[in-house]
Amino acid sequence: MNPGASIKCRSSLYMIRKALESGELKPGGPVLEVTSGNQGCGLAVVCAVLGHPLTLTMSKGNSAQRAIHMEALGAKCVRVPQVEGTYGNVTLADVKEAEAEGMRLVDELGAYYINQFNNEANAEAHYKTTGPEIWRQTGHHVDVFVATVGTAGTFTGTSKYLKEKNPNLLSFVVEPAGSEPIKGKEITKPLHLLQGSGYGCVPNLFKFDYMDGTVSVTDEEVIKYKNLIGEKEGLFVGYTSGANVAAAVHLLQSGKVPKDAWVVTTLNDTGLKYTPVPNECV
User: Fold this and answer.
1) In the chain, what is the straight-line distance between the N-terminal and C-terminal CA atoms, in Å?
2) Distance in angstroms (rounded) separating the CA atoms of residues 224 and 226
3) How far apart (Å, rounded) are the C-alpha atoms in residues 30 and 54?
4) Which residues are catalytically annotated?
5) N or C: which end of the chain has fewer CB within 10 A?
6) Is the pLDDT of residue 277 over 60?
């Protein structure tokens, strides 16, 4: 329910504020980020309000609605051709292409590079905000935390905070079946539905100290639970949200956690970012 319709609004604001405090970013200065769309939407909200010109590079494999959303808020989105994946299926190689274009534009524009995958303020944002919010809203009762991993900011920051509050808390990473590097498995299915997650690498912000296990989910399970969240709860969400809920159900049925455990996860963004578009828009 964040203003940019994704969990990335809070980390966007936090990273921008940190950059302004340190002097790395000047008031009104240009900002650049490489994104799958969610961080870009969060940054577009923040930069619009704070008056920073924003340029984003994003793989053409990510849904066109994300580019429309970001540009509607005044950002410029450069959509970079894919080298390996297909529309709706973005691989690490595709991300690297978007990153290369972003690095070229950083120099050209003299922009501050957010660098969400390596920016410690990304995880710190969730340690300072998401973790405390969950702890407060559950009445200090959380047994299990479950989350997909893109940059690992949400998982690392939130898990760190909740484990400090409840040393017995269990944290589980959700990975798409066939792309489970955190579990230590060979990548056999780099193409999957989880845009912005499951890139086939262990992110630099990820900390194994805060993980108690992993849960794998299939594309079919992701679609099933994404649809059920809408049909049963009235919430139109994206695929990583479906993955998170599918994983929570897996855990509760597996015997790995008590059947009466309070399992908390996140619904990462709106399903409006994924609706199919005409071919000419792709």
Assistant:
1) 27
2) 6
3) 6
4) 8
5) N
6) no
| Residue that has been written with the tokens 């010109």 in this structure | 53
Note the pTM of the prediction, 2 decimals.
0.92
Distance CA 56, CA 67 (A): 9
* Domains parsed from the chain with CATH numbers: 7-113 (3.40.50.1100), 126-265 (3.40.50.1100)
Give the residue carrying structure tokens 């790395």.
Answer: 24
Nearest-angstrom CA–CA distance, 161 and 131: 5
**113 - beta bridge partners?**
32
Q: How many other CB atoms sit within 10 Å of the CB of residue 202?
A: 14
Which residue type occupies 249? V
d(Cα 144, Cα 168) in Å, to the nearest integer?
A: 9
**Mean pLDDT in residue range 44-48:** 98
Residues 6 or more apart from 270 whose CB is under 8 A from it?
Answer: 5, 6, 236, 237, 238
pLDDT level of residue 276 (50, 70, 90 thresholds): low
Residue 195 has pLDDT above 90, yes or no: no
What length does the chain have?
Answer: 282
Token pair listed for 260? 């009466």
- Residue 89: its pLDDT value, please? 86
Residue 202 CA to chain centroid, in angstroms? 14
Tell me: pLDDT of 15 over 80: yes
